[in-house]
Prior knowledge:
- By secondary structure, this protein is of the alpha/beta class.
- The protein has a domain at 2-39 and 225-301 and 444-496: FAD/NAD(P)-binding domain, CATH 3.50.50.
- The chain is built from 15 helices and 20 strands.
- The chain has a seven-stranded mixed sheet with strand order 7-6-15-16-17-14-18. A five-stranded parallel sheet has the order 9-2-1-13-20, covered by helices on one side.
- The longest helix is centred in the first third of the chain and has 23 residues, at 117-139.
- The protein is globular.
- The two termini are 16 Å apart.
- Flavin-adenine dinucleotide binds at residues 6-12, 29-32, 37-39, 52-55, 247-248, 280-281, 309, 311, 425, 429-431, 436-437, 465-466, 472-474, 477.
Amino acid sequence: MKVGIIGAGIAGIATAIRLRTLGLEVSIFEANSYLGGKLSEFEVQGYRFDAGPSLFTMPHFVEELFEVAGRNPKDYFDYETLDVITNYFYEDGTKIYAYADTRRFAQEVEEKTGEKKEIVLTFLKKSKEKYELTGEIFLRRSLHTIDSFLNRETLWCILNAYKLDAFRTMNQANQSLFKSPKIVQLFNRYATYNGSDPWQTPATLNIIPHLEFGIGAFFPKKGMFSITSSLARLAKDLGVDFTLNAKVEQIIVKENHSRKKVEGLLVNGEKYDFDMVVSNMDIVNTYQKLLPSEPQPTKILNQPKSSSALIFYWGINREFDELALHNIFFSQNYQQEFEHIFKKKTIYNDPTVYINITSKHKRDDAPPRCENWFTMINVPNNSGQDWDMLIAQSRENIVKKLSRMLKVDLARHIEVEQILDPRSIEAKTSSSQGALYGNSSNNRYAAFLRHANFSPTITNLFFCGGSVHPGGGIPLALSSAKIVGDLVKKRLEVLQK
Ligand code: FAD
């Protein structure tokens, strides 16, 4: 059986590996001249930058792909565990080191803010409980097939649903638990891990801290892009066929006795026959551009999208001992910042600034005595704002804020600059509105309002990636590939009977 995959993002590549191990003949078509979509890299004047994701969690989701293929992960991919996850900086000079060791972290929080360490440990314990209750059901299975619901784990989850804290917002839950506004802010930040707003997203999302503090935060030794490159190498070793600069223009659907089935793909004007098709392209654009004459699931496609990002990739001509791999410089008014992103759809003048510096761990990512700064702020998704004006204003605000907090004239040290904004994210990866994570989770029903991993109307059409179930971010994009693999396996079993 022949499968055509649209897009070589991390989910497309992972799906290719899974389907190839089922014995299918797999071809991937990628519109860009490079692999990885959001998870790609580039180099400029001696500085290497990971273009998109910078935080690596759940490495076992990557490793299991090598195991499924009967290979040793260590032959392809290696990573280290972080002892300090993030350095947090506040305007009043407070610095908090988020140690991976939770007791040490809780002690640090108590010393720096007065927040009792027992409260922090209780919060992290509850975060773990929520993850254990929901992780397998919401993240590793289809939510759209009946057999996902007919089992003991799902029944257990339904009976314990009250523990998920879905009826108040993340901010309400955190404010009612912590006395220190600094710690409320620190834990509210986890809403941004899937592009949501802590003042709207349900407190269920307080499971996210467990991913970092319970399971761990990691750094791939050859940079984030090595997740893409090592999985692509595995796919090629297994015999997956990759074609770059190959923009899919149409999913060809055949109707027979009012039943629809995929027949192939139209790529750069040429027709390719396939028995199955998997789209890793954003779901909104898959329907609107590749299936324009099919019925559109408008309720799902019109769900509000997650936030986007504005990134300045800076080559910095000096080193900063106080900075680590992940650094956060908090806004003084977090609520205002989110109001601007999600309600006013603009950028706040005192944004929280995230700096990721891979040269702290991978020295050759920057010239000697220099650092590669991936400087990012959360911004609204693209709805036609005057981005050139917003980017110019934000650059000035970010440089001023970092200069003030690091006590340095930062502008003098920026020797290289590249910019990524919601428009370029949309143009480079086809993400609807340049959203980083597909739909936002600012709604307690969001998990049920993402598109299924299969088409309900067109046989043998499947969907993977950050814009469909279970959602955005590397671990979830990889989970979507697992779910597609499981669905295809079942379909093959039915066909063989
Ligand atoms: P994509 O990476 O978007 O890949 C889709 C691919 O399909 C692209 O290569 C595109 O070119 C191709 N394509 C689209 N249309 C066509 C077509 N018609 N024909 C052929 N090919 C097509 N996640 C984390 O886990 N941690 C982080 O720290 C993190 N930070 C992020 C920071 C930024 C700036 C961004 C942009 C994202 C971040 N994410 C992070 C999210 C993460 O990158 C994504 O959720 C994940 O990479 C999505 O992978 P994907 O395979 O679903 O989609």
